[in-house]
Amino acid sequence: MTTAVRTTGRARPGRAVLAAETRLFLREPGSLFWVLAFPTLLLVVLGLVPGMTQPDDDLGGRSFVELYVPVSCLLAAIMAGAMALPTVVATYREQRILRRIATTPARAGHVLGAQVVLHGTAVALSVVVVLACARLVLGVALPAQLAGWGLAFLLALVAVLAVGGLVAGTAPSVRIATALGTAVFFPLMFTAGVWFPVSGMGGALRDVVAATPLGAAALALEQAQAGVWPDAVHLLVVAAWAVGLTAVAVRCFRWQ
After folding, report:
1. Mean pLDDT by 10 residues, the chain (256 residues)
2. Is the dihedral of CA 166, 152, 122, 37 positive or negative?
3. Which residues 6+ apart lie within 8 Å of 28 measured at CB?
4. Torsional class of 60: left (φ above 0), alpha (ψ -120 to 50), beta (otherwise)
């Protein structure tokens, strides 16, 4: 990786880092499975459970699988941001690869940026697969408000990847990165509605979850799925988290 950065001649450092990281990223089928395949497989398994595809009055006339489609998409983002990305960068730090990169024109933003682009692309592909499978296999309609859905998910993706970037930029070893990633993994899953839909939560719990990036994103995606433009409050909450976490992640990044 260091060689790639140093031997690119007049190429921009960012492009050199991204090219090197792309080659390495494609050699990790394990991470690709959890980001690209697992959310779709989970959705299909739920769809095979009797009654999961039937409309339910308690769910506003929608089926559980229909509510779980945006959750599956958020799960792909969580897998990439909380588990995959921190491990990669922490491995580089532990093996002193980051220290060697620091002697080149590359900067922290280049390293984090390359990982965000690659993992973000993998998540985007996963979303396409989830939506296509939901439509063609399970009979779930595509989001009725597609533009609002896409905006809400993009903001959520940036926020989750920023969480991963913060963990990756500060963890001194792979073991600590894995532990920190696991520590944020389960709260992110809960607030995204993996175990229980956010819209079904009541009282203070729903208000607290709605103030988190994935809680607000889950509510916004659910609204867009039903054909309503997401509430501006939900979008602003996710956007604020995305901007703030990204700034902190870049600020706190350490080479060693």
Report:
1. 44 77 84 90 90 77 86 95 89 80 71 85 96 92 94 96 88 90 94 86 89 95 92 96 91 78
2. positive
3. 88
4. left
Contact between 127 and 73 under an 8 Å Cβ cutoff? The reply is: yes
Residue 133 near residue 44 (C-beta atoms within 8 A): yes
Residues 229 and 88 sit within 8 Å (Cβ to Cβ): no
**Backbone phi, then psi, for 163, in 5-degree steps?**
-60, -45
The gap from C-alpha 95 to its chain's centroid, in whole angstroms, comes to 26
Would you say 132 and 36 are in contact if contact means Cβ atoms under 8 Å apart?
no
**pTM confidence score:** 0.87
Question: Residue 88 in 3-state DSSP?
Answer: helix
Domain count, the chain: 1
- Using DSSP, how many helices (H) and how many strands (E) does the chain show? 13, 0
Which residues constitute the domain of residue 190? Answer: 2-252
Predicted confidence at residue 11, as pLDDT, reads: 52
Q: What is the DSSP letter of 56?
A: B
